[in-house]
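User: Could you go from structure to sequence for me? I need the amino acid at each position, not a summary. Structure tokens:
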């Protein structure tokens, strides 16, 4: 199983170097510190975060997948990707976010009923005052 890393695309000019993709800084509770990245082992505040990316290796090829500009969404996308790769390592086929054990064919999940329901309004749910 390959390691999934979260990368941040930033525009930081420090001296003569430009750091387009760096690691985000994490708080002790495991969440991403917004506006702070790790450059050369030091936490550095940045003004502009251009986006978050997931970096992993699949079939010996490094992939960089954009996941958005929100730190919470990016962290959830990384966790989802780790879970997907772990599921694949156990031999379970993952199809569009759902997992199926091998040999089950094309079993589709039950769909919710799409019957039209009458929308409730606050006046319809209240009892009449006398």
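Assistant: Here is the amino acid at each position, in order:
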């Amino acid at each position: 199983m390959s390691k999934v890393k979260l990368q941040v695309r930033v525009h930081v000019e420090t001296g003569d170097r430009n750091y387009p993709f760096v690691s985000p800084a994490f708080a002790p509770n495991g969440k991403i510190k917004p506006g702070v990245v790790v450059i050369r082992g030091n936490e550095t505040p940045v003004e502009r975060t251009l986006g978050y990316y997931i970096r992993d290796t699949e079939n010996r090829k490094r992939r960089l997948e954009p996941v958005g500009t929100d730190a919470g969404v990016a962290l959830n996308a990384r966790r989802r990707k780790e879970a997907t790769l772990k599921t694949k390592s156990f031999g379970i086929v993952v199809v569009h976010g759902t997992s199926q054990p091998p040999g089950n064919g094309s079993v589709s999940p039950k769909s919710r009923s799409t019957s039209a329901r009458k929308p409730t309004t606050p006046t319809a749910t209240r009892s009449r005052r006398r």
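One structural detail worth keeping in mind: The mean pLDDT is 77.
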